[in-house]
Amino acid sequence: MTVADDAAIQKLRNMVFPQQGRSLDSVVSEMLGTVTNQAFLQHPRFFAFVPSPASPLSWVGDVLTDAYNPHGGTWMESSAASCLEQETIKWLCQQAGYSKTAGGLFVSGGSIANLTALAAARHAMLAETEYNDGVAYLSEQAHFSVIKALRIMGLTQEQIRKIPCDVHLCIDTLQLEQAILKDQKEGKKPFLVVATAGTTNTGGIDPLSQIADICQRHRLWFHVDGAYGASVLVSKKYRHLLKDISRADSQVWDAHKWLFQTYACSTVLFRDRKYLAAFYSSDPEYLRDAAAENGEINYWEWETNPACTLSEIVAHPADTGN
Ligand SMILES: Cc1ncc(COP(=O)(O)O)c(C=O)c1O
């Protein structure tokens, strides 16, 4: 791993915004000489961190995407690309053991994927008047982006329970259930448990089946952060490690980690995509004449189904399909 030396950093800091253009050659050689002189994640044996080397094929995908620069918001502008997104998401949902109700999105990273799922989860589980009493549970080994997402959503520290781990550095489910019961008794509104499939520190996998049972018993949304660990789903040998991930209401799966894609390529998957639509679908006036027809998808409006509201979600997601 190479860290730029003081002289190189100083040179970059001292650069002034140029008044005159420069030749492309000189800019590119400066980039190659100084700026790309960094930790070389692209080495085929770079497995030091969670982000893995990207496959050369994924570079081609990135180059094509950048060159054609598709606008994925409407079917009218990017029908084939949107169709590919739908089909790829469908395939990932199948790997996760989800049924046809499932769906999801490509987003720009595991952190934003966690935020995307958790905001929709709260909308599905609580009325807005209950938001101040909502409580979320995660292990002390959960990735920091989960807490960040909850804070961005407006939860206070008091609404976030960091549950201790067992000797395997996985969430202690006994303490988890006790905490939920205590909060319920005190009139709070437990609404969410975040499990991790592949913790960043140790690769621990929280006991997904037990957590799914707890969520079902107490009517909480079950989210799995599988940013890198979810890729185990495509391994015949190890997919059993993620048994019952199909019971998660939502999950995060980063392709820019163990699926060897370039940044930024993450996905957020929902067991029932109506909860994604319920929170994120929108109806801007200037796009109405581009409304999607059957089978098409406008990613701004998510899909043609009318968004469902809390009152339409009679049953808790955990009551169905488990
Ligand atoms: C378990 C877990 N969740 C979420 C993230 C955040 O992903 P990203 O860096 O793509 O935002 C990471 C990153 O290492 C992670 O290991």
Physical arrangement of strands within the biggest beta sheet: 1-7-6-5-4-2-3
| N- and C-termini, Cα separation | 47 Å
The CATH topology of the largest domain turns out to be Aspartate Aminotransferase, domain 2
Globally, the shape reads globular
What is the total tally of β strands? 7
Radius of gyration: 22 Å
The level-1 CATH class of the largest domain? Alpha Beta
What's the architecture of the largest domain in CATH terms?
A: 3-Layer(aba) Sandwich
Bound molecules: pyridoxal-5'-phosphate
SSE arrangement, N to C = HHHHEHEHEHEHEEEH
Q: What would you give as the CATH superfamily of the largest domain?
A: Type I PLP-dependent aspartate aminotransferase-like (Major domain)
Number of helices: 9
Explained architecture:
This protein has 322 residues and is of the alpha/beta class. It has 2 domains: 33 residues, no CATH class; 253 residues, Type I PLP-dependent aspartate aminotransferase-like (Major domain) (Aspartate Aminotransferase, domain 2, 3-Layer(aba) Sandwich). The chain has 9 helices and 7 strands, in the order ααααβαβαβαβαβββα. It has a 7-stranded mixed sheet, sandwiched between helices. The longest helix has 21 residues. The protein is globular, with a radius of gyration of 22 Å. About 4% of the residues have low confidence. Pyridoxal-5'-phosphate binds next to helix 5.
SSE topology:
Blueprint: H1 6-14, H2 24-35, H3 56-68, H4 75-95, E1 103-107, H5 110-125, E2 134-139, H6 144-152, E3 160-163, H7 173-185, E4 189-196, H8 208-218, E5 221-225, E6 250-254, E7 266-270, H9 274-280
Parallel strand pairs: 2-3, 2-4, 4-5, 5-6
Antiparallel strand pairs: 1-7, 6-7
Bound molecules: pyridoxal-5'-phosphate (PLP).
